[in-house]
Design a protein that fits this description.
Elements lengths: L1 H15 L5 E4 L1 H6 L2 H38 L5 H26 L4 H9 L1 H18 L3 E4 L16 H7 L6
Parallel strand pairs: 1-2
């Protein structure tokens, strides 16, 4: 009996006093409506493509050098073998270094992404926070990035309000 009363009181408190409001956004939808995001993403993609090509070319040269060395190894004098192995190892190291410099944890791609994309994401976050506070939402989920959001009523989608807060009119 005491359990039933406690449960009833608890549910009553949740319903009448401390209920929390939830909303969600679709960050992919928001980003697709921000013109400078498309421009920034295109710049970033072009850089990544260029850097990837540069690395692939080096890997192609490295592959050819290894194949040639393997074919000729038996015929080469010991000094030449050592020299060629050293050249191949140097090229491998340089390629790995370039790969790390371009795509490593704090590499050029990460830094350029921080420069181009992060300010846009920060603007979205600031606008979303303002809208959530104004609408009285305690939690906001991202439909695009949250695999745990199984269902969201369209009325709880504040994506267009976030765009409006950012001064972006939907096309």
């Amino acid at each position: 009996m005491i359990r039933s009363i406690s449960l009833f009181i608890f549910l009553g408190l949740i319903k009448w006093g401390i209920a929390q409001s939830f909303a969600f956004i679709d960050s992919e939808y928001i980003l697709s409506n921000i013109p400078e995001y498309a421009e920034s993403k295109e710049k970033l993609d072009k850089l990544a493509e260029s850097w990837t090509r540069e690395i692939e070319e080096r890997l192609g040269v490295l592959k050819i050098q290894k194949e040639n060395f393997n074919k000729e190894e038996i015929l080469l004098p010991s000094e030449e073998k050592t020299k060629r192995k050293s050249e191949i190892e140097k090229l491998e190291k340089e390629t790995i270094d370039i790969q790390t410099q371009r795509f490593g944890m704090n590499g050029d791609y990460f830094l350029k992404r921080q420069e181009l994309i992060k300010p846009i994401q920060d603007r979205i976050y600031t606008a979303m926070k303002k809208v959530a506070k104004a609408e009285g939402h305690t939690f906001v989920f991202d439909k695009a990035n949250q695999s745990t959001l199984i269902y969201g009523d369209k009325d709880a989608d504040i994506s267009n309000l976030v765009l409006e807060e950012m001064g972006i009119t939907k096309e």
